[in-house]
């Protein structure tokens, strides 16, 4: 849009740029009835920091997290906090979690964390909790009630009795289409806690829930799934405005179930599914049967990204920052009562697919 | 695509290059010509004159050709960054005009969409030609009898009807004649002449296509090769120098821009702002520190390299990529590095081979020119150009 920077049109162009919705950096505070209720936060997820040996880590995943952190630090106005959506590590090891935490420490401001299965199934979250604190919790921020759940638990028998070693347990849970896997769940204990936590919250208070897996059932074979999703949704049903954010899926998804708006996060590591062509060097991508025809395999950051979220009127306006691609926004539309992609809408309004060459 | 009038600029020793190629140069696609600015001999000749006119600068000493010198493959090699009026230096290395007809964006950060638009900016940049506005240019072209006649012939316009639009169109038309293929690589790859390049260069081509990952941005098609994807990438040049400042610099630049600061002036006069790259144009974080993929044609005669001229030799360039976007192995990688850049683990031999391949991309006229400049006594170099479909003689307009 602002390719032409003729001197006279320049100021005009700059002004247009600022009002353009796709900008990842905005200098303008959006105006709301109660400006003090409006705020933004950044949301980075699924970095999958992977230890090779000694001081060696997979460079590709490192670069993804480093870049998301550096870009988040440039956001103007500054986000109130950053949420990390889980799967900081790949195999849950101490070196991976330490290395990831070190990179995240460059973020300005408060960082909250969600537990991912890759962080959990080696030592059942022990070291993660040492670094980042409780695995489920809630907090209030500018009139919004935030809840963080550990949604990647599973049946005790699978967790405690099935595997000869913690390492194997981690490997089995990290596989896709793995008949040895087990569905994720929030579980009785946390749901009881959630019910108690919500009992204190007024029904018109906006609620934002973070989980690693979707609190809805999408595809069981890849654990795009939470076994007790309906029971969690039932606990959230009495509230006017509920938004659920989740990671894990490494792609943009959004959905509306009853009063609950769902939006996913992109990964900083790789997209699901992804291409395995153009390797030329060891890639360390997990094995996968379904290929992606969307991402450009040369640009390792293609089809990855991060997001920042504008909370206004208690509803979320999610901006996805996507490398090599046009930024996208998923905005809650009060008219239709559901989140909508601002560019990809009804079939007759869709823009053409993104192409590189 | 407009009508393609293929003209070839010949800059060579007559003895080495007596026959001027009239067909479309081997290795290049049909010439794109905008529908509203068709190529005509009169316009091309006028553009050549404008390109070389030093009066379009505040000191009367700088023409387009100062930094895009026909004797130096239309660059100012070996300068690191270009020198404008009063020897003021900008922040960027002059890219060659040769084959710019095929580019889809102009300037290193792509802030201009076409050759016509591009031509107006250096004239009024304070470190280039230094005029405060375009009025002096219009004064000259509206009063100089030669220009009056030339604009009548080229555009059928009377002096007072001539505007910068016509001036820019004429310069662009001239620049569209500066196309050049027929390199040894073209003879080998498209012309199927097995002995056109050495075995070493052929090995280098394999590195270029595969392990070196070069071709992903410096593209080669089935029937032609422009060696550019016309896109923008952070490859760790320039931006590496400002890493510590980005946190304050990037937001401050956006603020200044919103307040009306001129991007063209800011990026050429402020070395740190310059390194923000295409971000300065589009405001998008994804393009922080990104610059345009330059063509590789004639790269062996246009040193130094990169947007800031910071790499002296092709070997330096290859090593920078081999290190994964850092010039010295111990430098820190910048946070915004393009996802396509990663360490390549090329062997010393592979890097040598790759450089040998890059040296096969020089068109014969510029190879001859380079040879002559290294050995001035060997022959007289003169600038001359000819158009295949026109009788016009367009060269020799050195003022």
Briefly summarize what is shown.
The complex is a heterodimer of chains A (357) and B (399). With 357 residues, chain A is of the alpha/beta class.
Give a structural overview.
- The complex is a heterodimer of chains A (357) and B (399).
- By secondary structure, chain A is α/β, with parallel strands linked by helices.
- Chain A is globular.
- Chain A has one domain (39-349): Metallo-dependent phosphatases (Purple Acid Phosphatase, chain A, domain 2, 4-Layer Sandwich), CATH 3.60.21.10.
- In chain A, strand 12 and strand 13 form a beta hairpin.
- In chain A, 24% of the residues lie in helices and 20% in strands.
- In chain A, helix 8 packs parallel to helix 9.
- By secondary structure, chain B is mainly α.
- Chain B folds into two domains: 7-180 and 367-387, Orthogonal Bundle (Cytochrome Bc1 Complex, Chain D, domain 2), CATH 1.10.760; 183-362, Cytochrome c-like domain (Cytochrome Bc1 Complex, Chain D, domain 2).
- Chain B is built from 15 helices and four strands.
- Chain B has a two-stranded antiparallel ribbon with strand order 1-4.
- The longest helix of chain B has 13 residues, at 246-258.
- Chain B starts with 6 loop residues before the first strand and ends in a 12-residue tail after the last strand.
- The model of chain B is unreliable at 1-22 and 379-399 (pLDDT under 50).
Keywords summarizing the entry:
heterodimer; A: 357 residues; alpha/beta; Purple Acid Phosphatase, chain A, domain 2; seven-stranded mixed β-sheet; six-stranded mixed β-sheet; 9 helices; 15 strands; globular; disordered N terminus; B: 399 residues; mainly alpha; Cytochrome Bc1 Complex, Chain D, domain 2; 2 domains; two-stranded antiparallel ribbon; two-stranded antiparallel sheet; 4 strands; disordered C terminus
